[in-house]
């Protein structure tokens, strides 16, 4: 595994874990309704990151296409999470999404 | 593909779709908080059904073990969904979970 | 679930099962080396179809983007499988891939 | 995320990447037929590790059951990979599987 791919996989895996944790934590909040869009995007983001990681690890010829879509969904999820400024799980997830988006874009440029 | 496996795959795929739809519909409800456990179980149930379907379709030697776990999670999800008697998406999901649980147990006995 | 979505999900699920079965059957062939690219594409195709089905079933705002990528990978996998004219599992998989590609493109146009 | 869970997620993610890489590398070998069982187990192992990681990250009540099954499949995959003593990708995968099996069993005992 090239060092760059490992760094990309690390960012993808950190984003999966952050999104899964964020969705579960959102469901425990008092005002779950306010978190509904966050939960929806967490689901999409964890799923696309998981698939992208698999394609990258296996050296798929289709990995590049997924990186582009993955970056888009990470951005959407990170933007939504960033709005919930007083929730630590959302702030951590927003940061993981931003790093993953950047790693995907770096992978695209490689 | 044997007819029995196709019937099992159909039940698993119907359960995945019902759980995904139910989770999204729950997030649109006025009282999302009441649906939090339902959404959590929908996630687990769709995920285990999806993996089980893959193992069954590929004829994996480990498919039997997953059928057992899949039946357990379908039961838990179906029981929770069944409680929400006035929500159609939950009732439909409860029915899909029950059928999938039965199909998994039939697959185990085969 | 709208009838059109159900038809799309059916095509996606049939393609997942065909790809999984094809990959396993390819691994049982005498000349596995000749099937190596087929097996690789089966993996990618089953994976992208599975994710696309989840996004469609949950009504994700990102489903459209995945449909486009899914159609591309279905085409690549179907073209490869179609080359192996004397293997039934490949011919069945090629047909499932073609139908799924068409269903994805129909979903994109909807 | 507790430190123990992070360590478990790291082992699961390393095992996914090793299995995906091993399967792709096996498909490039001259004697693919000899690697057929290894490729099959790599698929199962990467899939169960991926699902287990999702359940652990979301704090699912069903994570424990998956840890048990995941450990079993990691053992089967690691044992098969260990047989191919002159292939680096198999030796690396065998090591990742062994570490992941141990991490799953440690998670079960926790």
Automatic annotation (TrEMBL), chains A, B, C, D:
Name of a matching Pfam family: Csp
Gene3D superfamilies referenced in this protein's UniProt entry, alphabetically: 1.20.1270.360
InterPro entries the record matches: Csp_YhjQ (IPR005560), YHJQ-like (IPR044543)
PANTHER family (UniProt xref): CYTOPLASMIC PROTEIN, CYTOPLASMIC PROTEIN-RELATED
Name under which the protein is recorded: Four-helix bundle copper-binding protein
Species name: Hymenobacter rigui
């Amino acid at each position: 595994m090239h060092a760059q791919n490992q760094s990309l996989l690390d960012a993808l895996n950190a984003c999966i874990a952050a999104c899964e944790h964020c969705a579960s934590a959102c469901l425990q909040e008092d005002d779950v309704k306010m978190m509904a869009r966050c939960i929806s995007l967490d689901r999409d983001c964890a799923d696309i990151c998981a698939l992208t990681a698999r394609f990258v690890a296996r050296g798929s010829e289709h990995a590049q296409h997924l990186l582009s879509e993955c970056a888009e969904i990470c951005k959407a999820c990170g933007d939504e999470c960033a709005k919930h400024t007083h929730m630590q799980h959302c702030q951590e997830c927003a940061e993981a999404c931003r790093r993953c988006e950047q790693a995907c874009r770096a992978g695209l440029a490689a």
